[in-house]
Amino acid sequence: MLDKRRLVRFDLKVPAKIECLSRKKDKDVLDLVTSNLCSGGAFFPTEQTLPEGTKVRVDLMLPLGGLKKLISQYDHACIEVTGTVIRRESQGMAISFNRDYSIHPRKGNGDIQRIYRSGEVI
Q: Which of 79, 67, 78, 65 shows the shortest CA–CA distance to 106?
């Protein structure tokens, strides 16, 4: 089978919090882990999928690992992005990311400092 994807996908297990952007008061929030990830979207294994077309906010928590030497006061980088559920299947759901995003270094105690928004330093 020919893979028609334009973006390279990486088999990464990245913790994520997914929040529905609906108007109802009791918003669905899922704590999931990616099975693969690219700059345009991700696949999330789960039995509790959201309907196709659902608008979501995704917070991806990337461990800084080797970069910690350069940015010693932070443990993780939190990438906040919005997107849309584009596919549901028995193993999980695929979310396509929008181009707007922000990146926040995160300290172990949960403090967040916003340094990037849509690729620009602010």
A: 78
The pLDDT tens digits for 33-69 are 999 988 899 999 999 999 999 999 999 988 766 555 5
Sorted by where each begins, the domain ranges of the chain are: 15-121
Under 8 Å between Cβ of 61 and 14: yes
This prediction has a pTM of: 0.75
CATH dotted code for 15-121: 2.30.110
The β-bridge partners of 114 are none
Alpha-carbon torsion 47, 22, 40, 113, what sign?
Answer: negative
DSSP secondary structure string for all residues of 45-78: E-SSPPPTT-EEEEEEEEE-GGGGGTSTT-SEEE
